[in-house]
Amino acid sequence: MYKMNHYLGVFAIQAFALTAVSFVSVAQEIPTYNQEKTVEKICAFDAVEKLLPAPVNRQTQSPFSYLEQQGFVQDSDTSWVCYVNDPKKEGRYYTIFKVQQIDNKLVASTFLENGNLIAGQKNRSLDFFITLIENHTNTTPGNRQSIRIYLDSFFSLVQQGKVPLSRRSYLFDQPNRGFVSYHPLLSGKLQGSAVTININMTPKN
Question: Rounded distance, CA 5 to CA 116, Å?
């Protein structure tokens, strides 16, 4: 057990099984996204449209379809993903953000490169998570601001090496059973780590 800072200290450690996701991400400059003044999409990386697989023929409306306007595409497993080019090798691209619904849970991840966030990834990850929470839970603006501060602090501790890779998770929203974790990817051909939120989805009125 280790000490969390001002924002994390009041929360208890809880364990839950995460759905592991395969990924790799790459280091490159990413413009900072400001949620209050929306000038760029959350998924605003180098264009990779010509490299991507054919769009999924959706038979039903996905609860995450609005992410298409933010530059996301739907994968064959019905998840929504954001891709980034690999500047080191032409014709390759990687997943950096991913979200899917598992039963009544929203599971969203941002993937790290060798344990590191690429430039601008922290702010975009926060925008990504808070956008999902706003659209799929009954939280107030004040709640979301507190959650953003908590998650911002969590990312900072990850960057400082103060949160070890593990399957443990930290409670950030009691009413919606929202957890965040910094965990290894345990399945698939690619290896790595991710920061993942797991939260109950609430029907919106």
Answer: 20
At 16-65, the pLDDT tens digits run 333 333 333 333 333 343 444 434 788 875 555 544 555 555 555 789 99
Spatial distance between the Cα atoms of 16 and 105, rounded to a whole number of angstroms: 12
Torsion on CA atoms 120, 146, 183, 112, rounded to nearest 10: 0
Dihedral sign from CA coordinates of 47, 33, 175, 157: positive
The pLDDT tens digits of the residues spanning 144-174 come to: 999 999 999 999 999 999 999 998 999 999 9
Give this prediction's pTM: 0.74
